[in-house]
Amino acid sequence: MANPEDLFKQIIAHAKEYGYVFPSSEIYDGLSAVYDYAQYGVELKNNIKQYWWKAMVQMHDHIVGIDSAIFMHPTVWKASGHVDAFNDPMIDNKDSKKRYRADILIEEYIAKLEDRINKEVTKAKKRFDPFDEKMFRETNPNVLRNQQKIDEVTTRLAELMNSSDMVGLKQLIEELEIVCPVSGSRNWTDVRQFNLMFATQMGSVSEGADTVYLRPETAQGIFVNFLNVYKTGRMKVPFGIAQIGKAFRNEIVARQFIFRMREFEQMEMQFFVRPGEELTWFEYWKNERMKWHQDLGIPAEKFRFHDHDKLAHYANAATDIEFEFPFGFKELEGIHSRTDFDLAQHEKFSGKKLRYFDPETNESYVPYVVETSIGLDRMFLAVLSYAYQEETLPDGSQRVVLSLPPILAPIKVAILPLVKKDGLPEKAREIQDLLKPYMMCQYDEKDAIGRRYRRQDAIGTPYCITVDNQTLEDQTVTIRERDSMEQIRVPIDRLLQTIKF
RNA sequence: GCGAAAGUAGCUCAGUCGGUAGAGCAUUAGCUUCCCAAGCUAAGGGUCGCGGGUUCGAGUCCCGUUUUUCGCUCCA
Q1: What does the alpha-carbon distance between residue A159 and residue A126 come to, in Å, rounded to a whole number?
Q2: Taking CA A256 as the corner, what is the angle to CA A250 and CA A262, rounded to the nearest 5 degrees?
Q3: Residue nearest to nucleotide B49 (CA to C1')
Q4: Nucleotide with smallest C1' distance to residue A417 CA
Q5: How far in angstroms lies nucleotide B12's C1' from the CA of residue A129?
Q6: H helices, E strands: number in chain A
Q7: How far apart are CA A112 and CA A56, in angstroms?
Q8: Rg of the Cα trace of chain A?
Q9: At residue A317, what are phi and psi to the nearest 5 degrees?
Q10: How far is the CA of A382 from the C1' of B2 (A)?
Q11: Which residues, at least 6 apart from A121, have a Cβ–Cβ distance to it below 8 Å?
């Protein structure tokens, strides 16, 4: 078997060759880390969405869906913390090629000065007895000098960060003669700000036009609609709001095919619960979501939980469902207990009460939120890379087969006349017309039957219906199953009951 | 963003010393074929990633650039 790196390349090549994923704007040399879903890719993607939507919305009485706009009021992103959190000033050392956050380099410098003071104090402790530490700190010239420096640098850093003064940060780093911890050199690039949100202008006149952002996550569209959905949907806590939609992040490095793209699609559900019950629901959704993945028939050992040790400022529990991609276990879905952070922030910034009146407890409160958030493109890649198989058959011949879960397969059934004569094509077309309203069908009469089977294997079609001479006599056809390559003969009028996906 | 490698037909690749591009598969049309690709015939498809330079002449040498993969970095 090929090594993982080659396997991944083959999957990417297969995705392009068989019409699943194309590089964007390919005739213009492509656009970095942007991809288009092709004729089969879009079917697979839509099927994943449907499978998710059905599991989350249709199968849960207390979950409803929405589809909020990509553009949102700019204040949404101040409330959510994205405007601040996505504005890290970065600086590169030209010798070591290492990248650092400029503010952290300066903070580390401050920490060194503090170390120096502490050493001074420790030394003095040994020398004097009795030792008045407060007095020592207030009078020792070395300590005073360092403390003064700390205060000065801290103040300047705060000012520079507040005014987003990138030139000033660079100056400060040069002034303090901060060296790269790796190369030891002071050969720095300019400080640059990487805003992970894409910005654009709204309004026809640029004068006074507001900057709007392409949303970096879909969740906020749910939070700002919390009140509307709760009121108009007559929802009772606990309840959830689900959404599928595009999000955009201007990643510094976007790579690994469709795993990390600047434009991507999320399937999210925010579940609103009574405060204090969030961790119970967190466990519930962990299990539900893992079950959803495994219900597709993908083996359990391809998945694992990865609990976060370091929690984001808004979360009190968080875990990832990781999938074993060809390049290793990576995050596929996140389940976060987000507390009341988001709704509380939106209360603060909007001035509107985002509260739920609980008739059982006679209380009004800001609900806590448990989020499940899965990357649609990652799910696509997970399914595709799991399904891709190179097989050597008993007769020694090779085939490439996409063992997609039938429910997700782009084409459910191919209808093939065994030969292109004797009225078989006409009969096959009849069958196609019969099945077309119920599933994606494909008709193929070109080349030998074996080759047509292989073609369908390569795009992952689970069933091939073959029309032969016997069909004309007794109205039966054969159904050939993709993975086992086994055939059964069934009457045409029982096809719809027999083909299950 | 830095470093490394690569980019020739839809795919996999060849292309000698610098002399105006080739194979197999795939595609399309036809023939043959009653069940697991690679029988027959024919056709279509390439400004050799893009731009510049050297040269009488560049797929080939030089410079820049772009895309992809890998490593570093980043990932609320």
Answers
A1: 39
A2: 20
A3: A29
A4: B34
A5: 82
A6: 17, 23
A7: 52
A8: 30
A9: -165, 145
A10: 30
A11: A133, A136, A137, A143
Q: Which nucleotides of B are covered by protein (CB under 7 A)?
A: 1-3, 7, 10-12, 26-29, 31-39, 49-50, 66-76
User: Largest Cα–Cα distance of chain A, in whole Å?
Assistant: 111
Give the pTM: 0.84
C-alpha–C-alpha distance, residues A20 and A12, integer Å: 9
pLDDT band at A299 (very low <50, low <70, confident <90, very high): very high
Query: Smallest CA–C1' separation from A487: which nucleotide?
Result: B35
Tokens representing A455 are 């073609």
Q: Please give the nucleotide, over all strands, whose C1' is closest to the CA of residue A8.
A: B69
CA of A170 to C1' of B75 (A): 24
Residue A330 tokens read as 């990576």
Task: Give the DSSP H or E segment for A74.
Answer: helix A74-79
H or E element that contains A447: none
Best CA proximity match to A274, nearest among A241, A242, A239, A243: A239
Q: Cα–Cα distance between A93 and A485 in angstroms, integer? A: 58
Alpha-carbon separation of residue A213 from A245, A249, A452, A483 (angstroms): 15, 10, 48, 46
Most confident by average pLDDT, A93-102, A108-117, A155-164, A419-428: A419-428
